[in-house]
Specification:
disordered N terminus, disordered C terminus, hpI Integrase, Chain A, mainly alpha, single chain, 3-stranded antiparallel β-sheet, 2 domains, 16 helices
Amino acid sequence: MVHQQKVALAGSAYLELVSGVVQLRPEDAMFDAMLRGWRAQQKSRGLKDETIDPRERLIRRFLDFANEYPWQWTPAHMDEWSASLTSEKHLAPSTVRSYQGTVRLFTELLIDARYGWGPACEEAFGAYPVAIAHEWNTLPHLQDYEGDPEARPFTREELQRFLDYADDQVARAVKSKRKGALAAYRDATLFKVIYGWGLRRTETSKLDLVDFGRNPKARQFGRYGTLNVRYGKAKKGQPPRRRNVLSVMGWAVEAVADYVENVRPRFGFPDHPALWITERGGRLQPSSINDRFEAYRDALKLPKDLVPHSIRHSYVTHLTEDGVDRRFIQQQVGHECDSSTAIYTNPRELHQMGEESQVAKSGRGLTRTPSFYNLAV
């Protein structure tokens, strides 16, 4: 009975190794089988390829760094690798910990007796995998926010300039009758949506047309009263978290409504669910958001410490400055801990908050909503 349970367990060596077959490169064959097993185990837990694939690539990089196979790995390999990530690659603590966590997950599968990888390795190579990630050689999770300390929110003036510049690119493209007006309009609206609903890049990229809905308590926003964020930041080993974000900035609602009703249809591909679509019919990716952001930021000669996440950061800071309840902001941006929201605020400007500021004042003087340009081709 115990043997049958092992055979049936997704990710086990008994399912991935082919008995009676002589491998030309047995070490590589064993490693590939381990990765297949790990993928099967993660699939059985509901994880998707977009989560699994980067993890697998990282394990392959760790293998290259260690220059040893998993049944030969030791805590010293983890020590040396972690040191290189910090001192040579200068990665952020949160990134290093994420990488360490991925290696830990992989090795936990290999040393779990239920999956049978230890006995399989010992039989084939006379060695077996051991735990290499411990409290003393991995970074602890000490706080909720560990972003670059140099990163900061936009000031209102900077954000106004940035959004105005994005709008101006639409006008210039239309006036010159050159290709790219639709994409420029899409991106100008996208940045308004990131700010207007306090979104992350991936959350923004994965929005669908159907994700906007009505809010009975804010009928003035029509079908854009709420935004269903389906791909929020996930906890380790769990699917993306979902949340509903209430619309609070009327100008942002006007901008996205104009885009959905007048611009998005001009891309074609009516059956594609994505809110942000490319001219070739694909979903706009986070990397493309980065590229457009950096192009606009650099054209305006804004500081390099402004990054796409700074727009979301600004949402929290500006609402806080306007006197909006922090618990409400915390729910809007999907922070589990109030300490995360607190770190997002801009202490330099918080003393300027007025006691009578309300949500209606949020984003005051921040942006003009672009009129619908004639994009006829």
